[in-house]
Amino acid sequence: MAEWRVFPFAHTALKNLFSKPATTGYPFEPVKYPERMRGHVQIKIEDCISCGLCARSCPPGALKVDRAARTWTINRFDCVQCGNCTNVCPKKCLFMVPGYTEPGAQKVSETFTRPAPPEQEAQQAGGKPVNDASKCVYCTLCAKKCPQDAITVDRAAKSWALDAEKCVGCGICAASCPKKCLTLK
User: How far is the first Cα of the chain from the last one, in angstroms, to the nearest whole number?
Assistant: First the structure.
Protein backbone atom coordinates (compact mmCIF):
# COMPACT_ATOMS: atom_id res chain seq x y z
CA MET A 1 0.00 0.00 0.00
CA ALA A 2 1.48 3.31 -1.11
CA GLU A 3 1.93 5.95 1.49
CA TRP A 4 0.00 9.13 0.65
CA ARG A 5 1.46 12.47 1.66
CA VAL A 6 -0.74 15.54 2.08
CA PHE A 7 1.96 18.16 1.51
CA PRO A 8 4.84 16.64 -0.47
CA PHE A 9 6.59 20.01 -0.95
CA ALA A 10 6.07 21.37 2.56
CA HIS A 11 9.70 20.83 3.56
CA THR A 12 10.98 22.71 0.48
CA ALA A 13 8.48 25.55 0.92
CA LEU A 14 9.42 26.06 4.56
CA LYS A 15 13.13 25.93 3.79
CA ASN A 16 12.74 28.58 1.06
CA LEU A 17 10.56 30.71 3.31
CA PHE A 18 13.33 31.08 5.90
CA SER A 19 16.41 31.13 3.64
CA LYS A 20 18.16 34.19 2.23
CA PRO A 21 16.89 35.20 -1.25
CA ALA A 22 19.20 34.50 -4.18
CA THR A 23 18.43 37.78 -5.97
CA THR A 24 18.91 40.22 -3.10
CA GLY A 25 20.74 43.07 -4.85
CA TYR A 26 20.36 41.86 -8.42
CA PRO A 27 20.19 44.96 -10.57
CA PHE A 28 22.60 46.93 -8.39
CA GLU A 29 25.18 44.24 -7.67
CA PRO A 30 26.95 42.35 -10.46
CA VAL A 31 26.01 38.72 -10.87
CA LYS A 32 28.42 36.19 -9.40
CA TYR A 33 28.62 33.34 -11.88
CA PRO A 34 29.16 29.78 -10.65
CA GLU A 35 32.73 28.49 -10.86
CA ARG A 36 32.03 25.90 -13.56
CA MET A 37 29.80 28.08 -15.74
CA ARG A 38 30.67 27.75 -19.40
CA GLY A 39 29.84 31.30 -20.48
CA HIS A 40 29.68 32.27 -24.14
CA VAL A 41 32.10 32.19 -27.07
CA GLN A 42 34.12 35.25 -28.06
CA ILE A 43 36.66 35.63 -30.84
CA LYS A 44 39.82 37.64 -31.29
CA ILE A 45 39.18 38.01 -35.02
CA GLU A 46 42.57 39.49 -35.91
CA ASP A 47 44.23 36.18 -34.87
CA CYS A 48 41.79 33.96 -36.83
CA ILE A 49 43.15 32.19 -39.92
CA SER A 50 39.74 30.95 -41.17
CA CYS A 51 40.73 27.30 -41.03
CA GLY A 52 37.13 26.24 -40.32
CA LEU A 53 37.95 23.71 -37.60
CA CYS A 54 35.62 25.48 -35.17
CA ALA A 55 32.70 25.25 -37.59
CA ARG A 56 33.35 21.56 -38.25
CA SER A 57 33.49 20.73 -34.55
CA CYS A 58 30.32 22.68 -33.63
CA PRO A 59 27.59 20.09 -32.79
CA PRO A 60 24.58 22.35 -33.52
CA GLY A 61 26.23 24.07 -36.52
CA ALA A 62 26.10 27.53 -34.97
CA LEU A 63 29.38 28.66 -36.56
CA LYS A 64 30.09 29.56 -40.18
CA VAL A 65 33.51 30.44 -41.57
CA ASP A 66 33.90 32.05 -44.99
CA ARG A 67 37.55 32.03 -45.91
CA ALA A 68 37.13 34.07 -49.10
CA ALA A 69 35.13 36.83 -47.37
CA ARG A 70 37.38 36.62 -44.26
CA THR A 71 34.32 36.32 -41.99
CA TRP A 72 33.43 34.30 -38.90
CA THR A 73 29.74 34.09 -37.99
CA ILE A 74 28.07 32.75 -34.86
CA ASN A 75 24.37 32.21 -34.38
CA ARG A 76 24.07 32.82 -30.64
CA PHE A 77 20.62 31.22 -30.46
CA ASP A 78 21.92 27.92 -31.85
CA CYS A 79 25.17 27.89 -29.80
CA VAL A 80 25.01 25.53 -26.81
CA GLN A 81 28.23 26.83 -25.18
CA CYS A 82 29.87 23.41 -25.28
CA GLY A 83 33.35 24.84 -25.88
CA ASN A 84 34.31 22.40 -28.67
CA CYS A 85 35.27 25.30 -30.93
CA THR A 86 37.65 26.76 -28.34
CA ASN A 87 39.32 23.39 -27.83
CA VAL A 88 40.08 22.76 -31.52
CA CYS A 89 41.15 26.28 -32.52
CA PRO A 90 44.82 26.02 -33.58
CA LYS A 91 45.50 29.74 -33.04
CA LYS A 92 43.56 29.93 -29.73
CA CYS A 93 41.63 32.98 -30.94
CA LEU A 94 38.35 31.57 -29.55
CA PHE A 95 37.68 31.64 -25.82
CA MET A 96 34.81 31.34 -23.37
CA VAL A 97 33.77 34.45 -21.46
CA PRO A 98 31.76 34.09 -18.22
CA GLY A 99 28.25 35.42 -18.41
CA TYR A 100 25.20 35.12 -20.56
CA THR A 101 24.52 36.68 -23.93
CA GLU A 102 21.85 39.36 -24.04
CA PRO A 103 18.43 37.81 -24.65
CA GLY A 104 16.50 39.07 -27.62
CA ALA A 105 13.19 38.61 -29.40
CA GLN A 106 14.81 37.77 -32.75
CA LYS A 107 17.17 34.99 -33.78
CA VAL A 108 20.32 36.99 -34.52
CA SER A 109 23.76 36.05 -35.72
CA GLU A 110 26.96 38.03 -35.25
CA THR A 111 29.49 38.31 -38.05
CA PHE A 112 33.10 39.32 -37.49
CA THR A 113 35.36 40.30 -40.40
CA ARG A 114 39.12 39.85 -40.32
CA PRO A 115 41.08 42.91 -41.36
CA ALA A 116 43.20 42.37 -44.46
CA PRO A 117 46.85 42.29 -43.38
CA PRO A 118 49.53 44.05 -45.39
CA GLU A 119 51.29 41.66 -47.80
CA GLN A 120 54.47 41.48 -45.72
CA GLU A 121 52.56 40.51 -42.56
CA ALA A 122 50.48 37.95 -44.46
CA GLN A 123 53.61 36.09 -45.52
CA GLN A 124 55.05 36.11 -41.99
CA ALA A 125 51.75 35.33 -40.20
CA GLY A 126 51.26 31.57 -40.40
CA GLY A 127 53.34 30.41 -43.26
CA LYS A 128 53.00 27.31 -45.36
CA PRO A 129 54.51 23.96 -44.37
CA VAL A 130 57.77 22.95 -45.99
CA ASN A 131 58.84 19.29 -45.88
CA ASP A 132 62.40 18.14 -45.19
CA ALA A 133 62.44 14.99 -47.34
CA SER A 134 65.57 13.66 -45.61
CA LYS A 135 63.66 13.29 -42.32
CA CYS A 136 60.20 12.38 -43.70
CA VAL A 137 59.02 8.76 -43.38
CA TYR A 138 55.83 9.45 -45.39
CA CYS A 139 53.58 8.28 -42.57
CA THR A 140 50.62 10.35 -43.96
CA LEU A 141 49.79 11.72 -40.49
CA CYS A 142 50.16 15.32 -41.68
CA ALA A 143 47.73 14.67 -44.56
CA LYS A 144 45.21 13.03 -42.23
CA LYS A 145 45.35 15.90 -39.71
CA CYS A 146 45.13 18.72 -42.31
CA PRO A 147 41.69 20.35 -41.90
CA GLN A 148 41.70 21.66 -45.48
CA ASP A 149 42.97 18.47 -47.21
CA ALA A 150 45.85 20.53 -48.58
CA ILE A 151 48.52 17.83 -48.19
CA THR A 152 48.88 14.73 -50.35
CA VAL A 153 51.27 11.96 -49.37
CA ASP A 154 52.01 8.89 -51.47
CA ARG A 155 53.89 6.28 -49.42
CA ALA A 156 54.68 4.04 -52.39
CA ALA A 157 56.16 6.84 -54.51
CA LYS A 158 57.64 8.58 -51.45
CA SER A 159 56.14 11.89 -52.46
CA TRP A 160 54.74 14.77 -50.43
CA ALA A 161 52.77 17.62 -52.05
CA LEU A 162 51.08 20.76 -50.75
CA ASP A 163 48.18 22.57 -52.40
CA ALA A 164 49.11 26.15 -51.42
CA GLU A 165 45.66 27.47 -52.38
CA LYS A 166 43.92 25.23 -49.84
CA CYS A 167 46.50 25.65 -47.06
CA VAL A 168 45.56 28.18 -44.36
CA GLY A 169 48.83 27.97 -42.43
CA CYS A 170 47.27 26.62 -39.24
CA GLY A 171 50.33 24.52 -38.35
CA ILE A 172 48.40 21.40 -37.35
CA CYS A 173 50.41 19.33 -39.83
CA ALA A 174 53.73 20.49 -38.37
CA ALA A 175 52.52 19.89 -34.81
CA SER A 176 51.37 16.35 -35.62
CA CYS A 177 54.53 15.29 -37.51
CA PRO A 178 56.31 12.61 -35.42
CA LYS A 179 59.69 13.22 -37.14
CA LYS A 180 59.38 17.04 -36.99
CA CYS A 181 60.23 17.31 -40.68
CA LEU A 182 57.61 20.00 -41.39
CA THR A 183 58.31 23.67 -40.69
CA LEU A 184 56.13 26.69 -41.42
CA LYS A 185 57.78 29.26 -43.67
Answer: 78
Residue 121: pLDDT above 80? no
User: pLDDT tens across 47-57, in order?
Assistant: 998 889 999 99
The runs of H, that is alpha helices, within 30-140 are 53-57, 84-88, 119-125
In a shared domain, residues 95 and 43: yes
- pLDDT computed for residue 43 by the predictor: 95
Going by C-alpha positions, the residue among 113, 101, 106 that lies closest to residue 41 is 101
Q: Give the domain-ending residue among 82, 116, 150.
A: 116
Q: Are 118 and 135 in contact (CB under 8 A)?
A: no
The residue segments making up the domain with residue 102 are 37-116
